[in-house]
Amino acid sequence: MNDHKYIAIIGAGITGLTTAYYLKKAGIKFKIFEQSDHIGGVIRTKSTKNFLYETGPNSGVLGNAEIADLFEELKNDCKLEIADHSSARRLIWKKNKWHALPSGPVSAITTPLFSLYDKFRILGEPFRKKGTNPNESLGELVRRRMGKSFLNYAIDPFILGIYAGDPDYIVPKYALPKLYNLEQQYGSFIGGALKKRKEPKSDQDKKATREIFSVEGGLEKLIKALVKNIGVNHVHTNTKNISVRRLHKFFEIHYNDAIESGFTDIITTVNAHELNALFPFIGKPKLSPITNLKYAKVTEVTIGFNKWEGIKLDAFGGLVPYREQRNILGVLYMSTLFKNRAPKEGALLTIFIGGIRREELAELNEDEIKKLMANEFKLMMGVSKFEPDLFKTTHYQHAIAQYGADSEERIKAINIIEKDYKGLHLAGSIGNGVGIADRVKQGKDLATQIAEN
Ligand SMILES: Cc1cc2nc3c(=O)[nH]c(=O)nc-3n(C[C@H](O)[C@H](O)[C@H](O)COP(=O)(O)OP(=O)(O)OC[C@H]3O[C@@H](n4cnc5c(N)ncnc54)[C@H](O)[C@@H]3O)c2cc1C
User: Fold this and answer.
1) Residue 307: phi, psi to the nearest 5?
2) Is residue 13 lining ligand 1, measured as CB closer than 6 Å?
3) Residues near 449 by Cβ (< 8 Å), separated by ≥ 6?
4) Average pLDDT for 392-416
5) Are 268 and 278 in contact (CB under 8 A)?
6) Confidence band (pLDDT; 50, 70, 90) for 1?
7) With a threshold of 0.90, does the pTM exceed it?
8) Ligand 1 atom nearest residue 442's Cα
9) Are 298 and 354 contacting, i.e. CB atoms less than 8 angstroms apart?
10) Where do the domains of the chain lie, and which CATH numbers do they carry?
């Protein structure tokens, strides 16, 4: 039934590879076009003699059934690794000290992170009126329901951790739909979460455990497992300067000096700013609500020590609220979370700098960043001398898409274009979430939709 279909996927990141994997399972012909010589997009694992580290995402969340199913299907080719139990402990920087984010009612009362006023005020959260503005920012929503100190010391660092973003820009309806729906469906975060916990869960829902994961040997092993199952011959790398043409019912792909024709569908998984060059026939005005999508600039700093002499690393890591005005967004204790990342007595840490409100930091060069890290490590990580055995920086100009109040227009534009040009699918993190699990879900849903149409 699907014999006539031939799909071109642009981009060999996790979205493109997952789509290809499920297209292959459905018996649909496809080819992936990747402009670089690396397969995996931002997912990349590197190793030295002593350290195994990521230069893109460091971990994911088992946030939906699709990511759990994918690991189950690939279990002979890559081994899911769930983070150490200490990952439940999350630290927040306040007034020159790390504090654990409360994990129960007693710590919620005693924590110095939130003001006494807000701690009392939170008791009234279930009774507060539901919001009516779908484009309300996360900042407004949290101030309204929970209070300023919760925004500053729980939600702000949380949004830095996922989006490197600004809660006053991010719109929950698009960026955190589960949170948005709690208020819309149940009228309260607290009441909604409690009610949801009691609702019966389907077997599929139960797979979304929200555990933190990586893969034994690093996230790139997931990429290798996907490529093995897809067949490496279906992935064309170094296909530079792609532009797509539309010829009657089919699409043609032009790249380097080559042309490939006969595609019934084109799936893009690239960042928004790439779309104008890919689709000259659509035109800039029609694409602009999509290409205007903002991205956070981030620099990822990987720091390894053969022998760690700083503070005890018994947590997921720490996040630094914007109002604390430090030079890092957060630090992940990678050698605590996952096996074989650093020598036995050593440590591997990933630090993120920059983000939507401190972009200038992401532009610094390696020497400047090293000086910055030396200061921050002495204060925040308890090291007396900053002499790491591994120090690497990876810069991202377009790290994470920011789903703001322009999202409604962007999604509308995507829908119009997909309707006007049958067979065109604009995927990737321009919509449907930025996390690895979101990307996997989108890839699987898209392949299923194409197979069923
Ligand atoms: C620094 C960083 C940290 C992150 N941390 C986490 C985390 O901890 N947990 C989590 O769940 N998620 C995290 N994310 C997000 C997550 O990694 C990404 O959303 C996801 O990997 C993106 O996959 P993708 O396939 O959609 O896009 P990409 O990985 O960006 O892949 C797109 C591919 O398209 C190619 N391409 C682009 N333009 C063209 C073109 N014109 N022609 C051909 N090919 C093209 C690119 O080279 C690339 O290979 C992080 C992202 C970054 C950048």
Assistant:
1) -130, 120
2) yes
3) none
4) 98
5) yes
6) low
7) yes
8) 26
9) yes
10) 6-41+221-293+403-452 (3.50.50.60), 116-206 (1.10.3110.10), 295-401 (3.90.660.20)
